[in-house]
Write a structure and sequence with these properties.
Layout: H1 20-31, E1 35-39, E2 43-49, E3 63-67, E4 70-76, H2 78-99, H3 105-118, E5 130-138, E6 141-147, E7 153-155, E8 158-161, H4 165-172, H5 182-196, E9 207-213, E10 216-219, H6 222-232
Antiparallel strand pairs: 1-2, 1-8, 2-9, 3-4, 4-5, 5-6, 6-7, 9-10
Length: about 230
């Protein structure tokens, strides 16, 4: 991975027009545990696998509520994900205070993308090594945004990031998710996550799901997760 003088800082362009530090940050996302998201007719679902550093350590939480109407799932450096979640919450609070309503999802996405991109313009900083799936609802409808360490932001119907996420994307591409209900979306999200597991097994201990339904974001409780996981079998 070493690229001589062209990867010493984020400002050095290679002769091929590449910023290697940004590419390394994107590689950190691909090494993280899998996260998938999908948008249906009346809901948005984000699901994440949780890893632990050892058998004696607790697993990292990967889904963070941002406001009443939005939440995120992260893959990559979870510590960077905490920082981005804090930035998003402040943006949502400011929007609520100034406009007396919940922040638009597009506004949250654009503000986060600017923050991510700003780190690629200063030699004293490094890019955030985290990929983000932002799910939310506002007056314009349901939204699912993917944000990369480069500052790129995409709105998607379904997406997967992290380790072995290609298997999840291949699974999700088989279905017309835009016509599905909340329960169907959760089932397909869990099946897509299962595709990324080497042993093909998931449980309430290693996965978590957040849903946007009826203009509210919430993380599913263990009892609800057990019910969905039992239906997978």
């Amino acid at each position: 991975m070493f690229r001589n003088q062209y990867d010493q800082d984020v400002l050095s362009w290679s002769p091929h027009g590449r910023l290697h530090q940004v590419e390394y940050a994107i590689e950190a996302v691909t090494q993280g545990s899998s996260v998938v998201g999908c948008k249906g007719s009346n809901a948005v679902v984000i699901a994440a696998l949780k890893r632990s550093s050892s058998e004696l350590a607790a697993r990292h939480e990967k889904i963070f509520p941002i406001s009443k109407n939005a939440g995120i799932a992260v893959s990559g450096l979870v510590s960077d994900g905490h920082q981005i979640a804090s930035i998003l919450r402040n943006t949502a609070i400011n929007s609520s205070f100034v406009y007396n309503r919940e922040a638009r999802v597009a506004h949250l996405s654009a503000a986060t993308a600017r923050k991510l991109q700003a780190c690629t313009q200063h030699a004293s900083r490094r890019p955030y090594g985290v990929g983000i799936l932002l799910a939310g609802s506002d007056e314009s409808g349901l939204h699912l945004h993917q944000l990369l360490p480069s500052g790129d932001a995409y709105e998607s119907e379904a997406v997967g990031i992290g380790s072995r996420s290609q298997a999840a994307r291949t699974y999700l591409e088989k279905y017309r998710l835009s016509e599905m209900s909340l329960d169907q979306l959760v089932q397909h999200s869990l099946r897509a996550l299962r595709e990324t597991c080497p042993d093909g097994a998931i449980s309430t201990a290693c996965c978590t799901v957040g849903v946007v339904h009826n203009s509210e974001f919430r993380v599913l409780e263990n009892a609800e997760m057990e019910a969905y996981l039992s239906e997978l079998e």
